[in-house]
Amino acid sequence: MVFFLFLAxxxxxxPMIPGNQTAQDTTVSNFTYLxxxxxxxxxxxxxxxxxxxxQTARLLAxxxxxxxxxxxxxxxxxxxxxxxxxxxxxxxxxxxxxVTLLIGVNNQYRGRSVAEYKTEFTRLLKQAIQFAGGHSDRxxxxxxxxWGVVPFAEGRDRQQIGDEIDAFNAANKAVAKKFRVHYxxxxxxxxxxxxxxxLVASDGLHYSGKEMAIWAGKLAGIMEAILQ
Length: 228
Hints:
- The chain is α/β, with parallel strands linked by helices.
- It is built from 8 helices and 5 strands; from the N terminus they run βααβαβααβαβαα.
- The chain has a 5-stranded parallel β-sheet with strand order 2-1-3-4-5, sandwiched between helices.
- Helix 6 (158-178) links the parallel strand 4 (139-142) and strand 5 (182-184).
- The longest helix has 21 residues, at 158-178.
- The radius of gyration is 17 Å and the shape is globular.
């Protein structure tokens, strides 16, 4: 394996994708984006430009919606409590145009309870909303991908993994609904990796840039609606 001032920033704009440029207002403000998570957000085993937050910003730039380089607070292996510690240590004082939160796979992997996860996830989501300037409609929760379909899970109970991932996702979806934030279900897309090796990164565990492009395409659609 997040809020908000609509102010122009001095951060460098992400360049437009050649061939996909559209007419745009040159006075448009740069928006800002904070991505909170774990290995899926940091893009373990893929180049930086393939990380889904980076791909999302690039897609939006192609539509004339300029996002400053995403700020990412994520690390491979992090659980909800470890992400919370890192966020607190970061002492964030800025607010962001959009925040995303994707966390929980390592809670499941380590055998932690759904109840504990729900409590810690709730605290993280509250922080994410604060980083969005108190605007819950500028926060997006992404569901946990199902690592039970990738080669790394060979010899394990794939069905059990999938069922547990579903339980964790039911928890984060319920919390997202309670706080009225956006929810993006990428779990079904992750399960397509069972029949498409191209969706899996070279380590056999994480997801490739091709898979993350699917997530980014859907996320960009939500973010476009938020920022326009």
